[in-house]
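**Archive record**
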Amino acid sequence: MLYLASQFAWFLAAAFVLGLVMGWIGRDGGNLRLAGGTAGWFAAIWGLGAALTWLQLLNGELAAWVESALLFTGVYVAGCILGSLLRGMRASAAIDSEAAAAPIAAMPPVEGEADIPGQRPAGLVSARQDKPDDLKLIKGVGRQNEARLHGLGIWHFEQMAGWTPGNIEWVGSYLAFPGRIEREDWVGQARTLAAGGQTEFAMRAKAGLVETSRDDGLAGQDNVVALDTADGTPETKPAG
C-alpha cells in the first residue's frame, strides 16, 4: 500500500482536499450531518477490505484494486472529518465572539430576583437592528416562553448559546420549570441555529408541522411577561 501511496500521491492529495471541502459544506451549522447506519456500513466494509488485504487473501489485479479503493476512501474520509471539525470550530468561535461583542443592558430586576438560584444572563434592551430571532424554533420555547425571554432581554439564539450552567439554573427557576432547559437542550439547539444550521424540530416548525404558538399551560403563570402594557414596555405579572 505504501507503494500505491507513492505512485498516486497527487491523486491522494486531491482526494484529501475534496474531502476537506465536502466536510466543510456538509457540516449543518454546529452539527455534523452523519447517517449513523450509513457510516456503520461503510466502516464495516472498509474494515473487511482492509482485513482481506492485510491477510493477503486477495491476489493479483483484484488485490491492487481493493488496496487502491481503501487508500483513496480512507484519505477522502479523513479529509471530510478534518473539514467538518474545522468548520465546527469556526462556528463556535463566531458564536462566542458575537455573544461577547453584544451590548450588555442593565435590565430591570424581576420580582424575587435575589431569591432565584443561579446567575441571571445578561440581556439586551431590544433586538439588534430590531430583528429578533424566532426563539420558537427551539423545542420547548412556545409563544409564552418567548415573551418571557424577551422580558429578560433575550432576543437572539447566540445569547442562549452562551448561557452558563448558572444562567440555565436561573432561567429554569424563573420560568418555573427547573431542569427542562437541560432536558430539551435549549443551549445546544440555540448553538446550532445561531451557527446557521437547522434542527429537526426547527425544520418541522418552519414547515408548519409543529404548533409553536401553543401555550405552556399553567406552569409558571406567575412569571408570564405582559407585552401589552400602556407604555409598550414588558413587565412581570405579580404572583397571585
Remarks:
- The radius of gyration is 25 Å.
